[in-house]
């Protein structure tokens, strides 16, 4: 898999038998998709593939996530996808993920693509697998960007302009050889990535186990235990208490500012919304926005405040404000807990909200609601397993040390995955542009 040893051609645009051709001549037809009507549920509905159903890494369409739609029988034949068809994303995208990705339909099931995409039937002298990889190279090179038109927040691809681009294409036997090579080599990369992802999963499990044991059982394995009287919490050390959260606060829980959104120009304190907090409880830099001074006054955060998410799929998620940025206010879908430091350490409570016991409580609360919502009243009644503050400090120190080591290992694994995926992209580019002579490579490997 190392790039060293791959035989190279002198030309960056393929060998002498490659020809320059416009992309539109590699396909027989281009037809916009159909969104259809609401499903009938009588067995006649078909999956409708959206850009959200694209497997952007493996360049295929995922039928499992595609919604069922009803396409009238007189329209269905012209829209049905066939194995080997390409699907071009025509509308959607954004600054970090521009519109214009191409994936391959690789199924024998009946399906259509949505009206925000187009079906491309591959020409008889072209390999759909090769073209899939070729379009992936063009996308990574930004060729699609020249054909994007954007008058609103939605990007639209001028398909005719994109398909008018010229590229180098080898003879069919070489196309098949390149596709075979890339299928084989990317599969090896995917196997390595999957192994590293499994290791990250094991590290996350270990992290959770460490936090679980320390925050709900303590550090002394010989400590006498007692039944907490709380089903989701179970047993805890005999000298611990389990007061409701409201008894650990300096002031009552508070809902955030009900501003519609923040400003991007940096005028006023940073405005922290639930969407600004990632899965690890950290602030995202790319979503930074600000709130006017006058609107922020009652919602300014203090160091050690904990924010609880109250609505939607993120209900139960927490964020510990450590004083960075120096000035910040919080939004309406968050609830602020200002803790009494003489009773509970902020980092200890934050670790508690990462335990299985806490997540079980969140699940129970949200199941009881008609919508996913945890009110301030419900958070106020949350029982917190609580040792003396000296023991809390010891738990925080030990857990922080151990989870930091695990976090460093996970970050290293994540970087390795990023490098493998970058190599995957570079390998695709090298093969479809002829920088690697895959036939010579096959001889050398054989």
Written account of the structure:
This protein is of the alpha+beta class and 446 residues long. It has 10 helices and 22 strands. It has a 4-stranded antiparallel beta sheet.
Shape: elongated
What oligomerization state is this entry in? single chain
Low-confidence stretches: 1-12
The helix content is 25-40%
CATH superfamily of the domain at 19-169: DNA methylase specificity domains
- The rounded distance between the terminal residues' Cα atoms is 14 Å
Total number of strands: 22
Do you know the CATH topology of the domain at 19-169?
A: Adenine-n6-DNA-methyltransferase TaqI, Chain A, domain 2
Number of contiguous helices: 10
Task: Quickly name the level 1 CATH class of the domain at 19-169.
Answer: Alpha Beta
Strand content: 15-25%
Q: Which structural class matches the secondary elements?
A: alpha+beta
Task: Give a summary of the structure in a few sentences.
By secondary structure, this protein is an alpha+beta fold. The protein has helices at 76-79, 128-140, 159-163, 172-217, 293-296, 346-352, 356-368, 376-380, 389-432, 438-445, and strands at 19-22, 27-32, 46-49, 54-55, 60-61, 68-69, 86-89, 91-92, 102-104, 112-113, 117-122, 148-149, 155-157, 166-169, 225-227, 235-237, 254-255, 270-272, 306-309, 318-320, 328-330, 334-337.
């Amino acid at each position: 898999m190392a790039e060293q040893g791959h035989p190279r051609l002198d030309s960056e645009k393929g060998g002498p038998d490659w020809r320059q051709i416009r992309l539109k001549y590699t396909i027989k037809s281009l037809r916009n998709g159909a969104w259809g009507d609401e499903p009938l549920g009588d067995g006649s509905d078909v999956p409708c593939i959206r850009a959200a159903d694209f497997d952007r890494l493996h360049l295929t369409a995922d039928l499992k996530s595609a919604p069922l739609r009803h396409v009238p029988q007189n329209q269905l034949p012209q829209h049905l996808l066939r194995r080997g068809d390409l699907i071009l994303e025509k509308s959607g995208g954004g600054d970090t993920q521009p519109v214009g990705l191409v994936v391959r339909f690789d199924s024998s099931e009946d399906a259509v693509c949505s009206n925000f995409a187009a079906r491309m039937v591959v020409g008889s002298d072209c390999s759909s697998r090769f073209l899939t990889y070729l379009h992936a190279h063009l996308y990574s090179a930004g060729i699609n960007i020249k054909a994007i038109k954007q008058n609103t927040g939605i990007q639209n691809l001028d398909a005719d302009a994109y398909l008018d681009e010229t590229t180098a294409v080898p003879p069919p036997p070489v196309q098949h050889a390149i596709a075979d090579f890339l299928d084989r080599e990317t599969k090896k990369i995917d196997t390595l990535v999957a192994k590293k992802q499994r290791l990250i999963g094991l590290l996350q499990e270990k992290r959770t186990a460490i936090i679980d044991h320390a925050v709900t059982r303590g550090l002394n394995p010989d400590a006498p235990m007692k039944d907490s009287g709380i089903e989701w919490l179970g047993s805890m050390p005999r000298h611990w208490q389990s007061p409701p959260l409201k008894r650990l606060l300096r002031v009552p829980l508070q809902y955030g500012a009900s501003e519609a959104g923040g400003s991007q120009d940096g005028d006023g304190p940073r405005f922290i919304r639930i969407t600004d907090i990632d899965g690890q409880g950290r602030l995202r830099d790319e979503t930074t926005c600000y709130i006017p001074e006058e609107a922020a006054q009652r919602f300014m955060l203090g160091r050690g405040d904990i924010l609880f998410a109250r609505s939607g799929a993120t209900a139960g998620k927490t964020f510990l404000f450590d004083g960075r940025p120096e000035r910040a206010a919080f939004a309406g879908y968050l609830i602020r807990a200002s803790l009494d430091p003489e009773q509970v350490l902020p980092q200890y409570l934050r670790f508690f909200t990462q335990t299985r016991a806490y997540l079980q409580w969140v699940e129970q609360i949200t199941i009881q609601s008609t919508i996913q919502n945890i009110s301030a009243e419900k958070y106020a009644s949350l029982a917190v397993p609580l040792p003396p503050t000296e023991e809390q400090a010891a738990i925080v120190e030990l857990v922080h040390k151990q989870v930091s080591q695990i976090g460093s290992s996970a970050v290293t694994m994540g970087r390795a995955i990023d490098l493998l995926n970058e190599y995957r992209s570079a390998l695709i580019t090298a093969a479809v542009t002829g920088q690697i002579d895959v036939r010579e490579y096959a001889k050398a490997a054989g």
